[in-house]
């Protein structure tokens, strides 16, 4: 895949159950950077992510990946365009092996591409190589999340959207997953990280956004947000 510079969202609006939940949201994700999207439960983070990935229809606005419009595309076409979603909840195909779970996400079906994709996934998560013949249903929550991230890596994305990285996981596992995101960014992948724990996200992120009641109230450097914690505290209290 050719180098990709940015995903741009302009004036995004989303409705769920007949109610507007995202209001005129605009932002950009850059290649090689980790951007954190923070906010309290119900602030609109997951709705934003699902709209960006094509899972939720949008009520207004535009989305593009460089020159490619993502607006109105199906999740599969958005993934093929270069944006891979790692959804919350450690979702895997339980009756398939670990290796088959990873391979099912590969777009290029040639033997060499599949082999290279697996090697890349196993290099990042050697734990999965040791369990490649094991049914995914028998994995721990942390191992399932590694499989979900490996599925994104094998698609060779320009961008990854990771929804709730640490949800229900032990600190040691979260540390491993965080290292994988750092590797992704170092290899030029742009990462949008949705995370409930602000300190974890800000430790990883170059850039940060804060959402409150379906609107962005901060969009800037993560270091600036660290220096002005009242912005984040206000958003968590208000939602």
Tell me what you see in this structure.
The protein has 239 residues and is α/β, with parallel strands linked by helices. It has one domain: Rossmann fold, CATH 3.40.50.300. It is 39% helix and 26% strand. It is built from ten helices and ten strands. The chain has a six-stranded mixed sheet, sandwiched between helices. The chain has a four-stranded antiparallel sheet with strand order 2-1-4-5, covered by helices on one side. Strand 4 and strand 5 form a beta hairpin. Helix 4 crosses helix 6 and helix 6 runs parallel beside helix 7. The radius of gyration is 17 Å and the shape is globular. This is ABC transporter ATP-binding protein. InterPro entries: AAA+_ATPase, ABC_transporter-like_ATP-bd, ABC_transporter-like_CS, BCAA_Transport_ATP-bd_LivF, P-loop_NTPase.
């Amino acid at each position: 895949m050719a180098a990709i510079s940015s995903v741009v969202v302009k004036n995004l609006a989303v409705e769920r159950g007949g109610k507007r939940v995202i209001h005129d949201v605009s932002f950009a994700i850059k290649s090689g950077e980790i951007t954190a999207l923070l906010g309290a439960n119900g602030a609109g983070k997951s709705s934003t992510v699902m709209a960006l990935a094509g899972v939720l229809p949008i009520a207004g606005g535009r989305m593009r990946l460089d020159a490619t419009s993502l607006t109105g595309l199906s999740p599969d076409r958005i993934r093929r365009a270069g944006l891979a979603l790692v959804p919350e909840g450690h979702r895997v195909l339980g009756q398939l092996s670990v290796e088959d779970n990873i391979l099912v996400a590969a777009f290029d079906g040639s033997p060499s591409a599949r082999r290279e994709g697996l090697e890349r996934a196993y290099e990042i998560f050697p734990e999965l190589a040791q369990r490649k013949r094991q049914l995914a249903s028998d994995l721990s929550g942390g191992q399932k999340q590694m499989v979900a991230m490996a599925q994104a890596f094998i698609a060779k994305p320009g961008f990854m959207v990771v929804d709730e990285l640490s949800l229900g996981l032990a600190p040691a596992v979260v540390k491993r997953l965080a290292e994988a995101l750092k590797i992704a960014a170092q290899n030029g992948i742009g990462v949008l990280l949705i995370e409930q724990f602000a300190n974890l996200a800000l430790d990883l992120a170059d850039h940060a956004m804060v959402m409150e009641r379906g609107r962005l109230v901060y969009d800037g450097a993560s270091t600036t947000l660290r220096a002005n914690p009242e912005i984040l505290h206000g958003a968590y209290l208000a939602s």
